[in-house]
Amino acid sequence: MKLSTLPHTVYGGLIVTPLAPQALVDLAPEVLKGLLITHGYLVLRGFEHSIDGFSRLVRQNSSRISLDPARTFDGNTAQKVDAGLDAVGLHCENGNSPFWPDLCWFYCQTAPARGSQTTVCDGQVVYRHLSAEQRAAFSGRDIQYARRVEATKWKTYAFHALAQGDAAPACVEAVTLQDLLSLSAQDESSQIELNEDGSITYRFRTPAVRTSRLADDAHLAFANSLFGPSNHYEAPRITFADGEPIDPHLLQALDALCQRFTVDVGWQCGDVVLIDNTRVMHGRRAIDDPARTIFNALSYVD
What we know:
By secondary structure, this protein is α+β, with helices and mostly antiparallel strands. The chain has a domain at 3-124 and 258-300: Double-stranded beta-helix (4-Layer Sandwich). Helix content is 21%, strand content 31%. The protein is built from seven helices and 19 strands. The protein has helices spanning 29-39, 51-60, 123-128, 132-138, 151-162, 177-181, 248-260, and strands spanning 3-9, 12-18, 41-44, 64-66, 72-74, 78-80, 88-91, 103-110, 118-122, 143-149, 190-194, 200-206, 209-211, 220-222, 237-240, 263-264, 272-276, 280-284, 293-300. The two termini are 24 Å apart.
């Protein structure tokens, strides 16, 4: 397949278009991964597209699919983005939980007529502009997210994740805490406790500055969910890992810095955006055109 590539903005990203009519699924996984590692996120534009084609593209580039139980399902891969109309702060999708996917995908079925843009911000660019004091604040020191999640939500998440393997529970109600634990990293970064009402409380410790899980290099990125949303969920309590609060003035300065390097996707009908979810944060401007239709998918790679 012959492709044309252009920088998305001066801050990063790449627009990929076909030189002849091509379907999304014709894109070779090794090509996509190579471009993604280099550029952080890709805008696939001008391909023959459909919701089925988008789902097939996600699956052929992923070892496992992750679904958000609070979103509307469209098959077993894509979910409609339906988290209200307000602006959404920068975040790595599910980056405030032990179930942090490697890839974040978006498919624009109907582009907004005005505003309503998804935003992206390359954490590697942000890191290069952190002050010495800002770097020192997170050097060798993790942050921690603590949150309660209702029983129906964590059970639904685990049910759909396990349905892709050989150990699928018979139904959502049959899901156990052990099933959920089998999907999380078995290390000291996370603690998950079952509450008397069937909900869970988790604590997830992670660096605010990290390297990409996709790239075998040492490039650091300010990539986290310090400014992220809590749509459909209780807001997490965010502190340093030892419980010390994060200085609100530090957060305000970091937010302002991130906004300097935040850009709009610039949706066109049929666009697919693929994001390295461990390097590039994304968010959303306020929705001015509720007719826009965007689908989302989350996945892992080997």
